[in-house]
Write a structure and sequence with these properties.
Leucine-rich repeat, LRR (right-handed beta-alpha superhelix), F-box_dom, Monooxygenase, alpha/beta, 20 helices, F-box-like_dom_sf, two-stranded parallel ribbon
């Protein structure tokens, strides 16, 4: 064979082998074809699918590569969901003219979801969205940084097919001038989020303004199923009463961090809203007498959050023993939640349908009472949070691990320094061998309390191999975090291991309306 090096082999072997003819031209043709097979040869639909995994910022960078990629980047199918808030991973649009061009050229009928910052919320933009984006169903309007609104006196059009709307309120800007113009267009809303400034409030007390008229808003939104009033400092029981008087289809009401809510209208709420299944009242100012006045035995409630509400032991016993079908309970940071409450609930209530339990920082609960409850009902739980309690260590968790074989979410540990050590290798091994369905796990123990050996890699390997559904593992930053993160990264599972500074695990993922409640 000309042009090829001859191999010296045993003659008997040569005679026993079949004759194979290989020519240099065949090899060179194959290599030439390989050299010619580049990303440019991929069909447009394949490139479009690849681009769909990129963020809009990355897509904009790809558009500068060549004319073909620019055309694909402009495909409206890549622009179904758009955020124009650069501070929250969105695109930065420098001018109104640029945004109007984007709406016409790039968004069009494909646009389903858009987030707009205050500087881009004008009557011209909203008019263009209503004309050019007829399928727009989800909208977020961020007024939180506003010191002055644009002039909406000439606004005559607004998207009419909205099912989901988020309004981020300002502390000082009154919204009525804008809201009055959109009331006639939002009758079809099913999900409404009003986001307050709870996270921005400073310690010194300032004058509180009712920047949006809830009593008028409820008249324009009779079809609401989900209402989320988050961290709004002026929301009180009268506003809950207003929504319940007009929203007969209400399924989920969240008033987390609305500290003026006392529960005085809860009885009326449940009498009017027969479909209400989810009530979230984290860190409100509930009064035990108001809560006990509710006819709990008649409600359809399945999901309840009363964390950090200072309800009495008597009230908790009265409520939990009367709710007939509770599936989700978050009752952390309650001094009144003690062994008596848990025992009464087991004996006189109905926790048999419970799938999620959060008792974070319930210091008055003993490990013995928790063990008895979990021994009876642990197998049915999909989510369990027992964090923030120094007396609940790995010993209790190891004893109940075989019972929690259906768990998808677990949160354990406390960031406080303990006088005992947590044997994390043994804990990880128990999790791996007993919890095949686990999706989210958080260990909040101080890194100094975690004890692990040189063989800890084996325990992590077993966890990674056996818990294939695990998508989130949160640890406090430290040496053990670095070991676990490196182990998962070697297996190309780069996004699983996270630090507690950037991620928190919660049972809220198990709420029936979780996707509807997500904002930002």
């Amino acid at each position: 064979m000309a042009g090829w090096n001859k191999l010296t082999v045993d003659s008997a072997v040569i005679h026993s082998l079949p004759v194979i003819s290989v020519t240099p031209s065949t090899t060179s043709t194959t290599s030439t074809r390989r050299r010619r097979t580049t990303i440019e040869k991929l069909p447009d639909k394949v490139l479009l699918n690849i681009f769909s995994y990129l963020t809009h910022r990355e897509i904009c960078r790809m558009a500068r590569v060549c004319r073909k990629w620019r055309l694909i980047a402009y495909d409206t199918r890549l622009w179904k969901s758009v955020s124009l808030r650069p501070e929250i991973s969105g695109l930065h649009v420098g001018s109104l003219e640029a945004l109007l061009a984007l709406i016409s050229i790039r968004f069009g009928p494909s646009l389903r979801y858009i987030e707009l910052p205050i500087e881009l919320i004008t009557h011209t933009v909203l008019h263009e969205l209503s004309n050019k984006c007829p399928n727009l169903t989800h909208m977020l309007l961020d007024f939180s940084t506003a010191m002055q609104l644009h002039d909406f006196s000439e606004m005559q059009a607004f998207p009419t097919k909205l099912k989901y709307m988020v309004i981020c309120l300002s502390e000082v800007i009154f919204m009525e001038g804008f809201m009055r113009k959109i009331y006639n267009f939002i009758n079809g809303l099913e999900i409404l989020h009003l986001i307050g400034t709870y996270e921005k409030v400073e310690e010194e007390e300032e004058e509180i303004y009712e920047v949006i008229n809830v009593h008028k808003l409820k008249g324009a939104t009779p079809n609401l199923r989900v209402i989320n009033l988050y961290g709004i400092n002026f929301i009180d029981d009268s506003h809950i009463d207003a929504f319940s008087s007009n929203c007969i289809q209400l399924e989920c009401l969240a008033v987390n961090f609305c500290n003026k809510v006392t529960g005085s209208t809860l009885k009326t709420l449940f009498q009017r809203s027969r479909r209400l299944k989810c009530l979230l009242m984290n860190q409100t100012s509930l009064i035990s007498e108001h809560v006990m006045a509710v006819e709990w035995e008649k409600v359809s409630l399945q999901e309840l959050d009363i964390s950090a509400t200072d309800l009495s032991t008597e009230c908790l016993v009265d409520m939990l023993t009367r709710i007939p079908n509770l599936r989700f309970l978050s009752a952390g940071q309650l001094n009144g939640f003690n062994d008596t409450v848990l025992k009464s609930w087991m004996e006189m209530g109905n926790p048999r349908n419970l799938i999620a339990l959060d008792l974070e920082a319930s210091d008055n609960l003993s490990d013995d009472a928790l063990y008895k409850f979990l021994s009876r009902h642990g197998q049915q739980l999909s989510g369990l949070v027992l964090s923030g309690m120094p007396h609940i260590t790995d010993q209790l968790w190891m004893s109940v691990m075989p019972i929690l074989n259906n768990a998808r979410i677990l949160v354990m540990g406390t960031p406080e320094r303990l006088g005992v050590n947590i044997h994390v290798d043994q804990l990880m091994d128990g999790i791996a061998n007993n919890l095949p369905r686990l999706e989210r796990l958080e260990l909040r123990w101080d890194p100094q309390n975690l004890r692990f050996s040189d063989k800890s890699q084996k325990a992590i390997d077993i966890l990674r191999v056996k818990c294939l559904k695990l998508r989130c593992l949160v640890l406090n930053d430290g040496r053990y975090y670095e070991i676990v993160k490196a182990n998962f990264e070697r297996a190309d599972r780069n996004t699983v291991v996270r630090t507690s500074t950037s991620s928190r695990v919660s049972n809220y993922y198990l709420l029936g309306n979780y996707k509807d409640l997500v904002f930002n």
